[in-house]
Design a protein that fits this description.
This protein is of the alpha+beta class. Helices cover 37% and strands 17% of the residues. It is built from 9 helices and 6 strands. A 6-stranded mixed sheet has the order 1-5-4-3-2-6.
Length: 198
């Protein structure tokens, strides 16, 4: 799943400015295998768009997306669906929502053109993701875990000074990869350290 970081930042904002949901969570834990797909309006680029209504951590969610061939989807919104219609499309039952929650959902729909409410006509066209998506794309989206790497990494344990660990962690997600790159660059430049004698 890919996305525009600007759109992700907007989606992450708490209501009422955004939806309070992260595309990363959707990528990692959205249950495509039990989701239903509803066609919606084309995106600004003319590509077909769909709404996937499914479960994310025991909460019903709507994901607005466009397929990118059979390899991935691009996300444009992740939100709470208009609950009454979304809940009736899945096998698991979502609990009732309050009028206040429904009002929040409707306000979010009104604010975000990328998260439209599903019309009755669109709901009638809803199909399970396994039927609505290209089989190769469905297989990729329901694949659990990270794809196997050509160059598998080894798990090691080593002791490092706390300030080194904290410094790398402060650089944000992917800090372990960056640390590995620095170590690999040291090997290439001949920095091998000193041998320890007993």
């Amino acid at each position: 799943m890919v996305w525009d970081e600007r759109k992700r930042a907007i989606n992450l904002r708490p209501e009422p400015e955004g939806h309070g949901l992260d595309f990363v969570d959707t990528r990692d834990r959205f249950e495509w295998d039990s989701a239903v797909i509803v066609p919606t309006y084309p995106g600004p680029d003319g590509r077909p768009r769909f709404i996937a209504i499914g479960w994310l951590d025991e909460h019903l969610r709507a994901l607005v997306f466009s397929p990118l061939g059979t390899e991935a989807v691009t996300a444009s919104a992740s939100a709470r669906p208009a609950a009454r219609r979304g809940a009736s499309m899945t096998k698991r039952k979502a609990g009732p929502i309050s009028d206040a929650e429904e009002a929040r959902i409707q306000a979010a729909i009104a604010r975000d053109p990328d998260a439209p409410e599903v019309t009755d006509e669109q709901a009638a066209q809803a199909r399970p993701a396994s039927e609505a998506l290209d089989p190769a794309l469905f297989a990729r989206l329901t694949q659990r875990g990270r794809p196997r790497s050509e160059t598998r990494k080894k798990l090691v344990t080593l002791r490092l000074p706390p300030d080194v660990i904290e410094g790398y962690q402060a650089t944000g997600p992917g800090w372990q990869v960056r640390m590995g790159e620095v170590l690999a660059a040291g090997l290439k430049t001949g920095v091998r350290g000193r041998k320890r004698t007993v």
